[in-house]
Amino acid sequence: MKSRKPIVIANWKLNGGFDLLCSSVASFVKKSFLAEVYICPPYLYIRDLLHFLQYSVVNIGSQNVSKYQSGAYTGETSAQMLAEAGCKLCLIGHSERRSMFRENNASCQIKLKRAFENNLMPVLCIGENLEEKNAGITKDILSRQINESFEALDIADNSFCIAYEPVWAIGTGQAATPETAQEVHAYIREQLVSLFGQDKAQQIRILYGGSVTKLNTTELLTQPDIDGLLVGGASLDAEHFMSICQQV
Ligand code: PEP
User: Fold this and answer.
1) pTM of the full predicted structure?
2) pLDDT at residue number 1
3) Is 159 exposed, middle or buried (0-12, 13-18, 19+ CB in 10 A)?
């Protein structure tokens, strides 16, 4: 039995609309789960979803956060605003943000700081792309992503998660096997031990993401270092996402 509480996060990306809001409400209101469950909708729906899901145990998170606190930064949303709106968590450094919006380990570090300052639980997304996997440098990439994101940060009592999302598995239908994912998660935990010590590292939840469906959920979650799931495509069907959450 793991001591870390399982966590399941839906990442709607730039998808969803009132139909999905309504079907999520129908599925999740008055249900309970053994896992902590979060939905990260597009910013525009955060308040609506919070209102609709007030009689549920589902929490709301954001898919991103600005590295700026306020000022002339058109289109940005600050950690303080997200926290005030009711978000409990924010994703940081998703591979789509890294590849399409030029985010890197340095910007992730600033975003982690902003999240900590505002009591948003950050979920740092890391993962290698196909080229890096084929070149056999997965561990080097992950180690750099972790070390460069956290260096110079005082994490003290802050809580955060890591999401291992191999880029080659995102949206492709080719999830990592539970064994491969476990091997990588164990490596990530070793890195966390070196950075934060054994006690803290054992408390940090490491999620797997990349083509998770209701069919591979149980096998992934029975691995000793897989503490939760980050779900993209399969979370766009409320019943499907519900079935993932219920398997925990
Ligand atoms: C994601 O983008 O975070 C993700 C895991 O996507 P998918 O589940 O669709 O692979």
Assistant:
1) 0.97
2) 67
3) middle
